[in-house]
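Ticket #4471: structure export looks truncated?
Reporter: QA, pipeline team
Priority: medium

Steps to reproduce: submit the single chain below to the structure queue and open the exported record.
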Amino acid sequence: MSQVKQIVQQKYGQLAQRVSRGKESCCGPAASSVDPISANLYGEAEASMVPETALAASLGCGNPTALAELKPGEVVLDLGSGGGIDVLLSAKRVGPTGKAYGLDMTEEMLALAEENKAKSGLTNVEFLRGEIENIPLPDHSVDVIISNCVINLSADKDRVFAEAFRVLKPGGRFAVSDIVTRGEVPAAIRHSLELWVGCVAGALDESDYRAKLARAGFTQIQVELTRIYRVEDAREFLESQGFDLEALAPEVDGKFASALIRALKPASSPSPGERFTLGE
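Actual output as written to the record:
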């Protein structure tokens, strides 16, 4: 699955460069007619709180910072932070006594995020280079983990959940936006690397998402569907990818949904190696 990672890095790197040059917006009016998942996720008030280039580089499917119930003084980690929009919004919510980390593997996105940090003037923000399967933070160091339509891009989701569990403090919260599937998905969708980059092909079934989080040690798992996608929502997008929409429509209509996934790390839990052994 290394090919997937290479394509993800290439596509996100190219996007960051286009945004830096002012040539593309993922979430603005021009994009809303093409990508039904990433458009119109942030309200005007939130959009006004961050640099325009942070909003332009967002490829999310939800707004986890608005639903993570962040508190002043907390430490937040955004998995796959891209241009930094959710990190900057989190930093404002946790205030100067808290801290917001952003983790991304794409050099161009990290450079764009650093530019947006400088524009924001925030001092409680730190961007880290690395992979969400190997989080470069110590055990029990984070109060809240957020992510915005990035976990689907990983080919090793068990490792992602194990790492999230490891770095969370006992009692820590997991609150991510992601795409989930509802029933069997056609192989044509699953095997498309282009759609993988759009968070669709790598989507877990909602029941599998629950099971994997539980296996990692999480409790109080909730999967709340926030938007179910109809085939008409994605007509232009699917046609642009070369799919025969009339043939595909009966198989994909209503099969994908944006979801808010919440879970807790128990207040008293075993050490990371005791609860979950990678490769089991």
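Status: closed, not a bug. The export was complete when the record was re-opened. Leaving a note from the reviewer for reference: Residues 23-39, 272-280 have pLDDT under 50 and may be disordered.
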